[in-house]
Amino acid sequence: MNRYLIDFDTEELDKKYYDVVIVGGGIAGVYTALEIPEKYNIAILTKEGVDISSSVLAQGGIAVSLDKSDSPDIHMQDTLYAGAGLCDEESVRVLVDEAAENINLLCKYGVEFDRSPEDKRKLALTREGAHSKNRIIHAGDATGKEVCDKLIYNVTKRSNVTIYEKTWALDLLVKDGACHGLIAMEEETEKPIVFYADAVICATGGYGQLYYYTTNPVVATGDGAAFTFRAGGELEDLEFVQFHPTVLYHPENKSFLISEAVRGEGAILRNAKGERFMPNYHELAELAPRDVVSRCIFMEMKKTGTENVYLDITHEGKDYLEKRFPNIYSTLQKYGMDMSKDHIPVAPAEHYCMGGIKTNLDGETNIINYYACGEAACTGIHGANRLASNSLLEGIVFGRRIALKVSEMLMNEKNNQKHHARFFVKTERMNKGYNSKEAILSIKQTMTELVGIERTYDTLNEALQRVVEIKKEIADMNNTTFDDYVLQNMVLLAELVIKAAIMREESRGAHYRSDFKETKDEWKVHIVFSKDNIVREE
Ligand code: SIN
After folding, report:
1. SS3 label, residue 312
2. CA atoms within 13 A on the CB side of 457
3. Same domain membership, residue 263 and residue 218
4. Which residue from 307, 371, 460, 538 has the fewest beta carbons nearer than 10 Å?
5. Are residues 166 and 225 in the same domain?
6. Which of 54, 95, 216, 244 has most ligand 1 atoms within 8 Å of CB, for mutation?
7. 14-24: per-residue pLDDT in tens?
8. How far apart are alpha carbons 193 and 515 in whole angstroms?
9. How far is C-alpha 122 from the geometric centre of its chain's CA atoms?
10. What global pTM score does this model have?
11. Ligand 1: distance of its center to the CA of 221 in Å?
12. What's the number of CA atoms in the CB half-sphere (13 Å) around residue 55?
C-alpha cells in the first residue's frame, strides 16, 4: 500500500492556511464548525455539496431523555443493551448526559422539532427499536434535513468559515506523529491543493458504499477511515456494520429508508404469506434491537424463499400518515403505493458503520492535532449494534467536545510561530488503464453477497480472496481519476472489514457468524487495526 494516493511536492502546489480544517459537511462537521469560536479560520471540505451527506437523509430523529418518566440512566441502559456488551460505558455516559444541552443548542440554531399535540411547549417524543421509553425527537420524517438545513444556514453566515465543495480530501499530512493538514483535489481543476491547519477534524461519515444496497449517499466510501489508516491512525470495530431492517424493496428503488419510527407508530412486519412473524422471535417484536429485526427478516425471507417482507401500517388513516410521514408517504406514492392501504415491500440494507477511527472522549485520535467525529469515528458508544437515533446525537455531542478541545489547543498555541513543513512524495507508479468503476462494483457485489447479515468463514474467506486480487492489481497504479481514489479507499476498507469479521469467531450484535453462533466472553474485546498492528483491546 502506498502511503499517499498521489505523488506531490507541497512546495509546488497551491497552499491554503487555516486554524482548523474539517472534512465532511454532515451534522458532525457543520455543528463542530459552529461551536468553534469565530476568531478562528475554518475550512469545511465536502466531496460533493454540503447538502449531500448521510445526516441529511436521516429520517427518524434524535434520542434524548426529556420525558419525566425517562432519564439519562435509562437511555444509557437501552444503549448498552443494544450494543451487545461492547459499548464503552464512559462514552455512553457522556452521550446521554450531554444530550439535552446539545439539543437546546440545536434549537438555538433554529432547528424546529415537532411539538407535542397535547402541550405545544414540549417536543413530541416517539419510540424506535430497543428504546424502553418514548424519547425520539423528530421533524416529521425528515429530521436530518431539518437539522442540516438550519446548521448550514448558520454556517454560511459565518465569515470565519469557508466551504469548499467538490473538494476531495486525499491524504493527511503527518510528520513525527502530528497532523499538519491535508492534501486535497479540486474536482473542477483536477489539481491538488495543500490545506495546512493546526487541527484537522474528520467527519466524512461511514463506508456504507462498500455495499450494493445501502441507505447511504454515494459519498460514503470510507475515505476518512482510509486516509487515517494510511497516515498511521487506528481503526476500531470495523466488522460491525448495521443493516437497517426496513429499506424499500422496489424494482426502481432499493435504498430508500422506511424509518424505524413507522414501526414506532405501530407498523407490523409480515412475511410473503401475510403472517406477522416478529413475536415468534423476540419479546419486543417489531421494536427489538435493529440487528435482531434485520436477522429475523433475513431468516423469514430464507424460509419463504423471497427477497423481501412487508411493513403494514394500514391500521392508520391516510390523513395521519400523510402528516406524520410526509416524505415516506409521497415517495411511496411515486411508486404507486398508498401506505394507508398497501403493505410496503421492504428488505434489510446496509445503513450504518459502528466502527471507524478510534477516538477518546474528546474526539482525539492517536495522531496529534487530528480528531474524528460522527459516523467516521468510533467513540465506543455503539458497541456491536447502534441504538436507533443515537447517531445524530453522537455527531453533536462529540462534535462539540472536539470544538472545545480544539479551541483550548488553539488558545494555548496562539503565540506559537506556525510552521508548515514540506511534504515531498515521489514513487514509482504505473499507468494501467484499469477499469476502477467496474472494480468498485465488484467490491460492492462481493460485500453484499459474502459479508452481509450472515457470515461464515467460507463466505468471508472467499470475499477476502476477491478483494486481495483487486488490491494486487492496483497496488502500484498511478491514481488519476476520482474512481481510482475511491477504489483504493474501498479496497483498503473492505479488506480490513473482512479480516476483522474473520477474526471474530463469535456472533455479537450486527456481526452474525452462522459457524460461530454463540456470543463468547473471550470476544468481549475490540479489534483495532493500525498499519503495523492488529490488536484485541479490552
Ligand atoms: C430510521 O429512521 O429508522 C433511522 C434512524 C437511525 O438510523 O437511527
Report:
1. strand
2. 5
3. no
4. 538
5. yes
6. 244
7. 999 999 999 99
8. 48
9. 29
10. 0.96
11. 20
12. 32
In whole angstroms, give the CA distance from residue 112 to residue 123: 9
For 62-106, how does the pLDDT look when each residue is reduced to its tens digit (9 = 90+)? 999 999 999 999 999 999 999 999 999 999 999 999 999 999 999
Q: Which atom of ligand 1 is nearest to the CA of 390?
A: 8
* Cell 405501530, located at residue: 266
The C-alpha cell that represents 152 in the structure block: 448550514
> Is residue 117 a part of any domain in this protein?
no
Closest CA to 498 of 460, 454, 444, 449: 460
Domain region containing 144: 15-62+137-240+354-413
Q: Which atom of ligand 1 is nearest to the CA of 258?
A: 3
CATH number of the domain to which 481 belongs: 1.20.58.100
Ligand 1 atom nearest 391 alpha carbon: 8
Instruction: For residue 290, indicate whether it is catalytic.
Output: yes
- Other beta carbons within 10 Å of 11: 10
**Does residue 78 sit within a domain?**
no
Query: Is there a single domain that holds both residue 235 and residue 141?
Result: yes
Same domain, 358 and 346: no
CB atoms near residue 345 (< 10 Å): 21
In sequence order, what are the beta bridge partners of 126? Answer: 136
Pocket of ligand 1 (CB under 6 A): 59-60, 257, 259-261, 352, 388-389, 391
Ordered alpha helix ranges (H), 241-336? 260-264, 290-304, 318-324, 326-334
Q: How many angstroms does the Cα of residue 413 sit away from the middle of ligand 1?
A: 40
pLDDT tens digits for 179-192?
999 999 999 999 99
Ligand 1 probe mutation, 75, 344, 351, 390, most atoms within 8 A of CB: 351
